[in-house]
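Take a look at this chain, C-alpha cells included, and explain the fold to me:
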Amino acid sequence: MDDPIPLDPLRPKYRRVVLKLSGESFTTTGRSGISIDESLRIARQLQRVAQGGVQLAIVVGGGNILRGAQFSAGGEVIKESTAHYMGMLATVLNGLALQEALESVNCQTRLMTALRMESVAEPYIRRRCLRHLEKGRIVILAGGTGNPFVTTDSAAALRARELDADVLMKATKVDGVYSADPKKDPKATRFDKLTFAESIAKNLAVMDMTALAMCQEHKIPVLVFDFKHKGNIRAVMQGKALGTMITPP
C-alpha cells in the first residue's frame, strides 16, 4: 500500500538533507540486531524522497548492535577508546544493510565511512560525497567521524555543516521534543518550535550538547520527528508541520 501522504516531486521544501538514523531504527522495539523488514520499511520511504529530487545523506548509528559506552565499566579489559571504535564498526554493519535494502528498491547508493575499509565502503571524502549527491545517489555515512568519544549526533551535525545541508533531521520513535519523558510523565508537553538557546537552557534531550552547539553556531536548523509513522519522512521533506523544529532566534 502506498504511503498516505504523497511527496510532490516538483516541490520538496529542501534541496539537501542530512538525516540521522539511530541504530534502533534498524530493529523492532526491545530487540537488538538488524531487522530486514525494518530496513526495507525505511528504504521504501527514502526511495520516494529521492525520487522527489531531495539530495539525501544519511548518518547511521549502531546502538542496535553495540554501544561503545556499554564497555566503559570494563576499562581494565577493553579501553574506552577501543569500545568506541567497536561502536563505529557497528554503524558500518547498519550501513551495509541499509545500502542493500535501498538497492533492492532500485535506489542508487554509496556507502562512505570515516574508517578506512575499501573492500566494503568508500572512504568519506567531502568533494566525492557532494558529487554523489549531485548525481542523485543516496549517500550512507557510517563510522561516525572516525574518532572515539564523538557521538553520531555530533557526526551528523558535522556532516550537515560540511555538505551545506539545508536542514539536519533527526529521525526518532517519538513525535518531537517534550518537556519531559512522555513515557514517564503524563504531563509532558511537546514543543512545535524551539530555539537553540531554549533547548540548551531547558536541557532538553534533543541531541548531545556538542552537536547542538555546532548547529547553533552555523545556523543549521534541526528537525526532530517520528519516522515510524508511515509517510512521515516524505511529509517532512515537503515541509509538513511535523515534530519539533529547532532554529536560531
